[in-house]
Amino acid sequence: xxxxxxxxxxxxxxxxxxxxxxxxxxxxxxxxxxxxxxxxxxxxxxxxxxxxxxxxxxxxxxxxxxxxxxxxxxxxxxxxxxxxxxxxxxxxxxxxxxxxxxxxxxxxxxxxxxxxxxxxxxxxxxxxxxxxxxxxxxxxxxxxxxxxxxxxxxxxxxxxxxxxxxxxxxxxxxxxxxxxxxxxxxxxxxxxxxxxxxxxxxxxxxxxxxxxxxxxxxxxxxxxxxxxxxxxxxxxxxxxxxxxxxxxxxxxxxxxxxxxxxxxxxxxxxxxxxxxxxxxxxxxxxxxxxxxxxxxxxxxxxxxxxxxxxxxxxxxxxxxxxxxxxxxxxxxxxxxxxxxxxxxxxxxxxxxxxxxxxxxxxxxxxxxxxxxxxxxxxxxxxxxxxxxxxxxxxxxxxxxxxxxxxxxxxxxxxxxxxxxxxxxxxxxxxxxxxxxxxxxxxxxxxxxxxxxxxxxxxxxxxxxxxxxxxxxxxxxxxxxxxxxxxxxxxxxxxxxxxxxxxxxxxxxxxxxxxxxxxxxxxxxxxxxxxxxxxxxxxxxxxxxxxxxxxxxxxxxxxxxxxxxxxxxxxxxxxxxxxxxxxxxxxxxxxxxxxxxxxxxxxxxxxxxxxxxxxxxxxxxxxxxxxxxxxxxxxxxxxxxxxxxxxxxxxxxxxxxxxxxxxxxxxxxxxxxxxxxxxxxxxxxxxxxxxxxxxxxxxxxxxxxxxxxxxxxxxxxxxxxxxxxxxxxxxxxxxxxxxxxxxxxxxxxxxxxxxxxxxxxxxxxxxxxxxxxxxxxxxxxxxxxxxxxxxxxxxxxxxxxxxxxxxxxx
Length: 809
Hints:
By secondary structure, the chain is of the alpha+beta class. The protein has helices at residues 3-24, 50-69, 73-94, 105-155, 164-221, 241-265, 268-294, 302-309, 311-326, 332-341, 343-349, 352-358, 361-374, 382-405, 413-442, 445-480, 483-486, 489-521, 525-536, 549-576, 587-610, 615-632, 634-649, 689-694, 721-733, 770-787; strands spanning 539-542, 545-548, 657-660, 663-670, 674-679, 684-688, 697-699, 707-716, 745-751, 755-764.
């Protein structure tokens, strides 16, 4: 093949690859823009730059050769693309010729998950292909551009008359370009075929997903219309037993392949689920062994005893619930299998009080759910499924009537409350089951299926979530009762609060989960989701600024969660770290405070990101904040920086007795901007941190709680100073609370106008009690000197009056 033909084909393939890449992803692997061809003809290379340009182009040729020597990634990518295409083609073949319109809603929702999973797999493949194939297109483009530059140079006659060595070097380099372009043309041809296959597969995935979505919408629209003849006119269309079994077998094969592909994907949710399941089993076994050695069943709470007496049921139930919670996009076959596996654990873990209160209600709900799942075997044949659905509906209706007419006779006070809640729900279920039976008879099978399955599945899910919450509360109480946690300060002080908070959080999550599940079963979740999305999308768009109701809601919720998370982290660290022997003084409080502000800052960034703010928009905000700081926020910034200095240097900590100017008291809280001091009069004084750092700060308890105080004593002239000193020191040593080391000592300080002056200096190891101790010492000193006959004089003033002769007398 001539070189010109190769180059022409190569350029065509390069531009086709670049066009495909520009439609799907305009960025290369390193984040740079995919190179595009120059719009103007290449300029000739200057003579002085020919040698340097030849060396540079030779390096590009060498890079292209190394790239070609490696394994072509299109082979590996082609196999991965075939793995994605096989289930896609199988689903399309199984749902061709209008077969989607005959499938029940459960199969359609399963197919919708299939298509979503295929779309995610294809998106990951597309990203891998973009990173793997981009170097080939980039290398071909670089060689084509460099070839064009040398062609322009030759056309300008600048290569004529070059020295032989330089000319041979240029010719060798150009030959390398020709060889590399020829090799790249074949590689790019294979990659272009792969891109065409990928484009066709993407179109099939989009078409299949769109068809399933339309079929589900059609079922939702048919809920209020008849979709089969009335029962007295026949059961409707039947595909026959063998055809039904073949259709069911094909459907199960597709579901099985979907489950295998989903398992092989190994997503982050799957890894999280496996971690929960693997950690949960040894935790439950450890708690069971510890509980058997430490306490008897008589002292064990009911939730704890039931959860630990049946560890396998507890682990199985919580593991299956983890599948439903952590993998909401998992295959429907996997989720249904998890629900069926939880049947027995649900009944074994329901609280005894609830079972006594409800009688056989839970057993009936579980049995109906099991029968409903067995009825899915007839889903491939519409006529047979209609008959099985009617039989299940009549059975559920009869059992509900019997249960409502025979209430439980012996019920505990708690059980009577449950009955007051369950009986109205039973009457509502009875009404919907009767309506479902009437719809089935009249020919509205879609509405009958929705009502029957919705009632049965929602009832079973309520029992499952209630049993799971009871098991979680039991495990939590058993965990908090272990010595490793019960001796913790946080657990000792706030055990009831922690249990109440966790119980309410679990119940709230269970209620929300049941509500979403029930809405989905009654075909209300999709329209409500669409309406909610439309409402949350309301907002304004002005230039690059976009503000929507959903962004505001996401921002508020994120800030609220960050605030409560920060408070919880600070409370936990403040309760646990200050007493840790391995930490220096004040480090626990600093860690707790900095963690609080760190979580708040992280939550604020997450909230801004959730609200749709970009880094460029935040740069404008920070720029405006910098201008504000320059004009009028110097003191605020000074206090913030001073707060960081206090937290890292730790000259004070909460509980210290300090004096700042005229303020004296104990430190209550050290914030990032200001510190709160509780005065001895009971007032809370907020002192800016800048004052604490820049001014004089007296800390009476920085290294210890010792304090010295003085007692001033006067003795009358004529008293023996040695005797006075001995009395003062002996009295101080006999006073409870006076430290022995350093010992108290007394000194004579001078001669007063009417007395000899002495001072008694004593130490106490409890600075908080020095006032009461000084008062006690004053009283004891006065009594001791009085008993010794030493007079404590008081000030005397002699006034002399002189009588003078009045004027004029």
